[in-house]
Amino acid sequence: MKPLSLIAFVLMVSLPLHSQNRLESKIDSLIAHANYQQAIELIHSQATKSILLQNKEAEALMGSGKLIEAENILVKLSSDDPFTKAITQNNLGYLDLLKGRYDLAQDHLEKARDGLKESGKDNSKEGAKCFANLSLLYWSTGKFNQAEENGLIALQVRQT
Question: For residue 29, which of 125, 114, 99 has the smallest C-alpha distance?
Answer without folding.
Answer: 125
